[in-house]
Amino acid sequence: METQVLRSLARVSPAKRAADGSDMEGPGGGHRKRSRRISREKELDSFAIDGEDSDSDLDDIFLDPSVDPATLCPWCDEPLPPNPTPHLTSLIEGARRRSYPDDRPTNPLGLRAAPMVFVSVCQRHRFERVWIPRARKRGWPTSIDWGRLRGRIERLKGELKAIIDDIDEDFVPESEYSTTTNKQERAQCRPRKENEFWQDVVKNVRQQGSRQTTGVRGQFLHFNKTQPGYYGELGYMIIHQTLCDFFPPASFDPIAALPLTPADFIAHVLVPEAALNLIMEDLDLPRGDALKTLRDSVEYGVAMFPVDEGENG
């Protein structure tokens, strides 16, 4: 990802521009113009910004007088979002402390530094300038009250406990499965077996085995199906920790999570289930539409609410 962004941040210096347009001596001492071969194909960053979304133009070497340089990125000279998030503001301040002034025709307030100092800033402001407006159109939040999240999850304890208690007899030896519950009663109310996330687990376990399903490769393959949608990395951390507090893995019945471990059951079933209920509440959506939103907004959530967002407000 960083390599792509570094390419997209490449700038042609004024000196090089002059060389590109300079006269060349031709046969017989005459002069001819060397053709300029500047590619119009621009590298897009990891969020697939459309060509029309990028305001960079390699042919513009002077700042438009109508543009306030304070509204430009000090490093790549592209427009900053009108209302940067606290996370972006924090990234800018951190990079600014490691940069030095670079008054240039395209930005009199420009700064210069090693690319690794500012690449995360440019990734972030491009994301915010393009994707936050798109997210707003879809109704996805650009800020979340993290302080209320634990209380909201606590109200879901009853529903989540029902999923834990609905042991899937398909993965439990008959001798270990309790027969105290009437089979007819179990057939009428199966919160786990009817749960989309558990159904995904069962499908993957039957195809790949439980170890591969919960291993690194399995987590990569099924990433979108186990994440909390637009709640992102920070939301995942809070939801997961809250669920572990409410349902400590050590307190699980030995057969309750089979064929998963209790820790994997929380991560693969309870976390996305809790997030789904939160999204239904946020956007007033039926379960099916909320499930689509959960999966469509995963990448947005990961970028919008990284774990270190909590440190920056």
UniProtKB/TrEMBL annotation:
Its main location: cytoplasm. It is found in: Cytoplasm; Nucleus. One of its GO terms (cellular component) is cytoplasm. It comes from the Eukaryota. PANTHER family: RESTRICTION OF TELOMERE CAPPING PROTEIN 4. Belongs to the RTC4 family. This is Restriction of telomere capping protein 4.
